[in-house]
Design brief:
Two copies of one chain form a homodimer.
Chain A lengths: L2 H11 L6 H8 L3 H13 L3 E5 L3 E6 L6 H8 L8 E5 L5 H10 L6 E5 L20 E8 L9 H19 L4 E3 L3 E4 L2 E13 L2 E12 L18 H5 L5 H20 L3 H11 L6 E6 L2 E10 L5 E5 L4 E4 L3 E4 L2
Parallel strand pairs in A: 3-4
Antiparallel strand pairs in A: 1-2, 4-5, 5-9, 6-7, 7-8, 8-9, 10-11, 10-14, 11-12, 12-13
Chain lengths: 325, 325
């Protein structure tokens, strides 16, 4: 843990203030060095009161993601968030993580960007990622699974997102198979799963996650307003993005452990409860092919099992789902 | 087509010789320029006779792969071999092609290396690739298939390799599922299929192919002699590697077209005839898991269907197969 991570951790743990001497002893550095770091944190937008009786006290945090602060708030996890990077802007966080993956960086690293110039959705579609309005991030994982089981990771990510958003914002999103998170029928978050593999072994998976957090309705491009929303637009309350980010990483870490420990069934059960696609008649566009049927359940690899009009069960890996009225 | 590709093409097409004037007219350059290119080709090891009556005549080719010459001999194909690169040495030709893939190079490019310092087999195993003893090359493809159908590409590659080696060397290899080509029970070639994908769409596939061509038995490391062979060791005849390479690319181009045109069944039928794994009792090691059963057939994605002792059919994507006596 870096000095900043420890100082921010201590300030957050002691809401009534913590003395410079106490911080200095705990961190094994001088009081002057503590003071210098406090100045740096203030420059980053942290509002820190100081006084002879209260010591240092955190009274306000900037609307900006800060890697040291996220690490301090996250605490210990199994895998996800061992290391966190925050970029002010990048092309796509998936691209950054892919470079790390190819440099053999170990799994669990998380890369956030305050904005993306080329944010991607599925099938090469654009994902609009304006500065500080959302959480745009990617996670490197190296699960011991076959490529065909990679859909499990998308399923686990969706359940973790629903739990985190629900706990954070008090509104429970629904899931549209395979990768959309909706509030009131409008898209609030999406997951892009990319993988590199041999035929029988995943080398790495990159989970790309985009969450619309603090957009007002007016801030969405006109053509997206009917289908997209943000947590703020849905709840009427501005959200602390750092707090939400930390909750998501913790929930993801929990579900990733479940996947790796062979507990996919439990994840799938939870997913099924939240999924509005199951039990509905749907049409699915897969490339040139259009399939219609009843969405019955997930199989053990996370694929959708569709009962077609001819009565047989088709395993669907991906595609664009439209729910029939 | 480059000048060298055209000159070598004309020399190969006119085994009795072709005049400098004829070449100059055909290529639209001066006779002096033709003469300069002939000197360059001689420096590369091409033996080219010249005389007032015969003109230029190709009497010997070097035991070296030359991109221009391979392009000249290959002629027109649908996809594979549109562009060819030859490296004297590289880490792994799959690594080179992966860089090209990420630079959005279009499919069909082929990269050969005369030797690889870090040649790879499946599951991160080493592939020994000594200078000029074999064909070590990789091909970039962008087939419109789901990740789970990537095994089809390995199946197609194996059938193409068997046809090419059989036509070239007069000895018909057998196939051991999923990626080994054997002569007399010893490994003569292997295929490493790597892919980059979204959940429902392959972004690119890299076919890495290694063929032991001109090793003598003594040239194999002692620990490999029992399980590995070369075409030369198996036939007693030194092979023209360029000729074999061109045949393979042509056969692969044919089978790739079959895969893309929905004719996988025909490829699978041909594969099944050559495969010594089908119809046998086998044990398959998949990571920690050991499965035993009868190898029955391929499914439509190219996976092996194994009838286990409990009587049900398991779909096997990869693993190490041992055939039971």
């Amino acid at each position: 843990m870096t000095i900043d991570t420890q100082i921010l951790g201590a300030l957050r743990a002691n809401t009534n203030g913590v003395s410079g001497m106490e911080l200095a002893q705990k961190l094994g550095i001088s009081r002057a060095a503590i003071w210098a770091r406090i100045q740096e944190l203030r420059a980053l937008g942290y509002e820190i009161d100081a006084g002879p009786h209260i010591g240092y006290r955190l009274v306000g945090v900037p609307d900006a993601l800060h890697a040291e602060d996220l690490l301090a708030r996250l605490g210990a996890t199994n895998v996800i968030g061992r290391d966190i990077h925050v970029f002010e802007a990048t092309t796509s966080t998936n691209d950054v993580v892919e470079k790390l993956a190819r440099d053999n960086v170990r799994e669990g690293v998380v890369v956030f960007a305050e904005s993306q110039t080329k944010g991607r959705g599925r099938l090469g579609r654009a994902w609009v990622s304006p500065p500080r309005k959302g959480l745009w991030f990617s996670i490197l994982l190296r699960p011991p699974i076959r490529p065909s089981a990679a859909t499990r990771m998308t399923i686990a990510t969706a359940t973790a997102l629903v739990r985190a958003i629900s706990a954070h914002a008090g509104v429970t999103p629904e899931i549209k198979w395979p990768n959309d998170i909706l509030i009131g029928g409008k898209k609030v978050a999406g997951v892009l799963t990319e993988l590199s593999a041999e035929l029988d072994k995943v080398k790495y998976i990159i989970l790309g996650i985009g969450i619309n957090v603090n957009h007002t309705t007016a801030e969405f491009p006109a053509e997206l307003r009917k289908m997209a929303t943000s947590i703020r637009a849905a709840t009427g309350r501005r959200q602390d993005r750092g707090d939400l980010a930390v909750r998501i990483l913790r929930e993801l870490d929990h579900d990733y452990a479940r996947i790796c420990n062979g507990q996919f069934e439990a994840v799938a059960d939870e997913w099924s409860e939240r999924c509005t696609t199951l039990g509905r008649r749907v049409t699915i566009q897969m490339g040139d092919r259009l399939i219609e049927g009843a969405a019955e359940s997930l199989d053990r690899d996370g694929a959708l099992l569709l009962r077609t009009e001819h009565g047989h069960l088709e395993q669907i890996i991906g595609g664009d789902v439209t729910i029939k009225k």
